[in-house]
């Protein structure tokens, strides 16, 4: 299997659980890695795959923006890139597909609670941090910041 085999596609949310657990929840077998909105027909689940192996995950859910509640907005959750393939552009490719679909749906703003260690990635892909929104995740206890991206839909 080579990196030329990398592809991005929509998937069922269950396909994303392994990477979500390992990358975002420290491989804790008891950690919650699903969202009550996973099976909602408006949710979007995108995977980056090499062969059949999921290496990048991203899920998008309709959710009011904490910054611009008047906008049509979605929340990005569970953005994760497997450790051995980070820095290769795979996360950006997955994000591009998800954002293109959201734009086609008329979504104006995307928001997330971005893990502070990933803020460089988010800034490089067009996100902005919300000043004063720093907080500890209730799921991991790790520092996060609210981030937003104008989709210009």
Explain how this protein is built.
This protein is of the alpha+beta class and 153 residues long. It has a single domain, classed as Gcn5-related N-acetyltransferase (GNAT) (Aminopeptidase), CATH 3.40.630. The chain is 19% helix and 33% strand. The protein has helices at 17-24, 90-104, 119-124, and strands at residues 6-10, 44-50, 53-62, 73-81, 109-115, 128-129, 135-136, 143-150. Strands 1, 2, 3, 4, 5, 6, 7 and 8 form an 8-stranded mixed β-sheet that branches. α2 links the parallel β4 and β5. The longest helix has 15 residues, at 90-104.
Task: Describe the secondary-structure layout.
Blueprint: E1 6-10, H1 17-24, E2 44-50, E3 53-62, E4 73-81, H2 90-104, E5 109-115, H3 119-124, E6 128-129, E7 135-136, E8 143-150
Parallel strand pairs: 4-5
Antiparallel strand pairs: 1-2, 2-3, 3-4, 5-8, 6-8, 7-8
Tell how many strands the DSSP assignment holds: 8
Approximately what portion of the residues adopt beta-strand conformation?
Answer: 25-35%
**So how many helices?**
3
Overall average residue pLDDT: 95
The total tally of domains equals 1
Structure characteristics:
153 residues, globular, alpha+beta, eight-stranded mixed β-sheet, Aminopeptidase, single chain
In short:
The protein has helices spanning 17-24, 90-104, 119-124; strands at residues 6-10, 44-50, 53-62, 73-81, 109-115, 128-129, 135-136, 143-150. With 153 residues, it is of the alpha+beta class.
């Amino acid at each position: 299997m080579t990196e030329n085999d990398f592809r991005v596609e929509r998937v069922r949310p269950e396909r994303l659980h392994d990477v979500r657990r390992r990358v975002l929840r420290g491989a804790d077998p008891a950690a919650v890695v699903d969202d009550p909105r996973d099976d909602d027909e408006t949710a979007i689940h995108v995977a980056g795959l090499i062969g059949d192996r999921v290496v990048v995950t991203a899920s998008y859910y309709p959710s009011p923006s904490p910054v611009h509640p008047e906008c049509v907005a979605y929340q990005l959750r569970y953005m994760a890139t497997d450790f051995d393939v980070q820095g290769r552009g795979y996360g950006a490719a997955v994000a591009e597909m998800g954002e293109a679909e959201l734009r086609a749906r008329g979504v104006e703003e995307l928001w997330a609670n971005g893990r502070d260690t990933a803020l460089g990635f988010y800034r490089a892909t067009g996100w902005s941090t919300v000043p004063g929104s720093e907080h500890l995740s209730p799921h991991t206890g790790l520092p996060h910041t609210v981030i937003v991206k104008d989709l210009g839909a």
